[in-house]
Each structure stands twice: as structure tokens, then as C-alpha cells.
# Entry
Amino acid sequence: MFKKILIANRGEIAMRVIRTCKEMGIKSVAVYSTADAESLHVRFADEAVCIGPAPSSESYLKMSNIIAAAEITNADAIHPGYGFLSENAKFSKICEEHEIKFIGASAEMIDRMGDKASAKSTMIEAGVPCVPGSEGIIPDFKTCIKVAQETGYPVMLKASAGGGGKGMRAVWKEEDLQNAWESARQESKAAFGNDDMYMEKLIEEPRHIEIQIVGDSNGRACHLSERDCSVQRRHQKLTEETPSPFMTDELREKMGEAAVKAAEYIKYEGAGTVEFLVDKHRNFYFMEMNTRIQVEHPITEQVVDYDLIREQILVAAGVPISGKNYIPQLHSIECRINAEDPYKDFRPSPGKITNLHLPGGHGVRIDTHVYSGYTIPPNYDSMIAKLITTAQTREEAINKMKRALDEFVVEGIKTTVHFHRQLMDHPDYVSGNYTTKFMEDFEMKEPED
Ligand code: MV4
# Structure
């Protein structure tokens, strides 16, 4: 078992990993930029190393400095969290070359799943349902027209190096195809240095339902049921829940089986997430596979009583998984609390938290790194806390979320607490009748004076 793990991340996920390390009797090393010198993960870790100035490119993305920190502290493993280097194949490789265990996917696996067209081809081989469309990358516009005609409009053009909606275009009729093809490729080239495109039949008003899987070094995998992540704004998840209000026992069985089949086919090791698009007829299609722990992992932990970070560490240390599939026994909802002003188009609101009161009580979990007096730096993403409520039923979990949001006090900055409070009263949310289109029509009600 590892003696010391370096956490190559910051904020709430660094706290999350440090906590499990402490419970497992593993020493923890925090790395931090000069902007994070007063951050909580620095104080909670057994050791802390400053790896550079505020800009991520000079600190949390600076592979040489992170490896150096691991060497001088004699860490035998690195946990990358999510974001930053968590799905960076080069970093996974460098860790391997330095004989430091990367608690995540191998460089080959990251490359294979990171290239969306190749991931899709792999899933087709594995017999996982995929959206009909092109066979791999589209070589030129002439082929693009032909594939669109064969697929039938509307179609979705997608960047193979993409993800999160970048380089993606919905095309409803042939006359719009050329502009879409050119602008999507430009956007993808600019964002990823790669303009490979593939095409799919457009799934209208889909839900985003993902399955948590864990695979071990013996090639076995299990699933830990689903998370509904359809409430998104500009491809940023705002709130997630499990079980999905759209799920049926039969659909869960089929999606869980498909996700396990995918993981076992590629001999996936560690915690991963298979993302699916689900249409209104409950047909599901492979969308992407993420080879990292996800922000929203706590709701799965809550309903199946499972520590996913602990599982990642055990699998990385070669311990076989229990192998049984998990079906949710409870209902759990996560609200991402961001330092953004929902009354001003969610614009960022960094600064000093002058007063903070966190909610608590039965069924309330808060994953956060902030404290009263903490100054949120403007350099990183805006999430300051995850508020998670868990109860026997969805109605009770929503009720608990409302009560917890009403208790949540943050002064000195604006946050999305009021957005989530209004969401919990929205009829389409409360009825569970929402898709990825939900936020397009959502409008904040002005605050009562
Ligand atoms: C789609 C789609 C409809 N049809 N693919 C968005 C980013 C990436 N995860 C894939 N996405 C989509 N792919 C087909 N064939 C609609 C989306 C989509 C979406 C998917 C999940 C969650 C939110 C979304 C918001 C807009 C579009």
C-alpha cells in the first residue's frame, strides 16, 4: 500500500482526497500556488510544497514542478483529482517513468478515450449502443455531405479532440452544413490544436445520464448506478442527482450492463464514468468516457455507501474490487455552489468571504475548502462548495436541500445559492421532467427586497 500520496490539485477535491488518505493511514502531500498559500488543503495535508505562481500553467499544470515536489517529499503516488492533469496522457506517462503511481488511467487509456471518435469506434466493437453516424473521422467536406445524407438531418458535427460542447454544431438542413463544418473545425483547431470531426444523428432534447464504474487490474468491472447531470448551463453542470427521475429498473439494468461491458472490453482500471445520451423513448447512446473521478461523485457515495477515492487508491495499489453492482438505496442531490452572481448572468464574483455559515443536520454533506475570512482567488474555477442532501425519497431530498440552502450564509461575495433555491421550487425540476434543454428557458426571479 502507498505510504505517501501527493495530491496534484486544489480546493474541495484536494480536501476530499486528503481526508480519505488520513482515514487509510496514508501520508498526504499538498501542492499549492502562491495564490493558495492560505487554502485549507495546505493546512490539512501532512506536508505542503509551493509549486509556483498563481497562473495554472505555472503551477497546477506545471508537470516538472509537480514531479519535483513528489521526488523531494518521496511520495510514491500522485492523485490528480479532476480537471488540471487528471486526463493528461503525457503526465500519466511521466509518473510511470518516474515510478510514481498515477492514481488514474494509463497514458494509452487516456489517449484512447480522449479521442472521441476512437472511443466511439471502440464502443461499437464492444457492442455498446452508439448514436448512428460517421464511421470515425470525416476526411473531407465531400464525405461530410454524403454522411449527412445517409444519416438524415438533423445531424450533430463533433470535434474528435473535443468534449464539453467545444467544436460541436447542430445542423438541421444541408444548406447550413458547409458553414457549420468550417466553423466547428476552426473552433476545434483553436481549442485543441486538432480539427478532426465526426458526425452523429442529432438526439433531440436528450438527458445526460452517466454510469459510475470501477475496474480493477484483473480486468473485472462493476457499476455503481447512474447520475442524472442534465441540468447544465453552457456545458457546466449545475446540479446532479441519483437515481435519475427518468430511470426505470429495466433501463438501469441495460445501461449498467453496457457500461460494465465497455469497461471490461478496454480492461479499464480505476474509477471511471461512462456518459450516455438518453432520448425521450429511453433509448440510450454512448457519448463519452471520463477516465477521472468526477465532481459529482459524492451523490453516488451517499446512495451506495461507498468511498470512491478509497476505491481508486486500492485499485491503484492492485487490490481487486468486490465486483458487485450497486443499486441506489436512497436518493441524493448535489448543488454546486459557485462564486457567481445568478442575477447578473452568473458572472464570476471572487473576493473575500467576510462571513460564512454552512448548513448541517441529518442527510446534509458539504464538500468545501472555504472558511470565513478566506479570499477566493480569481485564477481558478468558481466552485466554492458542493452541497449534497440524501434522503429516502426524491421529495425528501429536495425538501432537505431547500432547508439546507435556506441555512447557507455566505457574505462578501455573490454565490449561486439563490439560483439553487429557486431551482428546487421549479415545477419541471420538482416533477423530474427536465432535459439538457432545461436551463435554456430558466429565468431567475428578482430578489425580494
Ligand atoms: C449530442 C447531443 C445531441 N445529439 N450528440 C454536449 C457536449 C458533449 N458532452 C456532447 N453533447 C451533446 N451531444 C448528439 N448526437 C446533445 C449534446 C448536448 C448536451 C449533452 C449532455 C449534456 C448537456 C448538453 C447540452 C447541449 C448539447
